[in-house]
Design goal:
- The chain is mainly β.
- It contains 1 helix and 8 strands.
């Protein structure tokens, strides 16, 4: 679950468990696409696409995030 402030809370099925734990993500700012249609992944409906890059060695996803504090739901430009 990701809080996008004025856009509400949305669910994501990001494949990031190799580097991140659920509790380690609480309070973390991430960059995500919210205007794609929801996508069913197995029995889960993912509502947003969380953005990241692969580390180039193991293929683990490294989340993208702003380098300064921004409000939840701020538009990417």
């Amino acid at each position: 679950m990701i809080d996008f402030g004025p856009l509400g809370t949305r669910k994501s099925s990001a494949q990031i468990t190799a580097r991140y734990t659920p509790t380690g993500l609480i309070g973390r700012t991430v960059i995500a696409v919210v205007n794609f249609p929801p996508r069913r992944i197995a029995d889960f409906l993912s509502e947003v696409l969380v953005l990241g890059v692969t580390d180039g060695v193991s293929g683990d996803v490294i989340l993208l995030r702003p380098d300064t504090e921004v409000k939840p739901g701020t538009r990417v430009t």
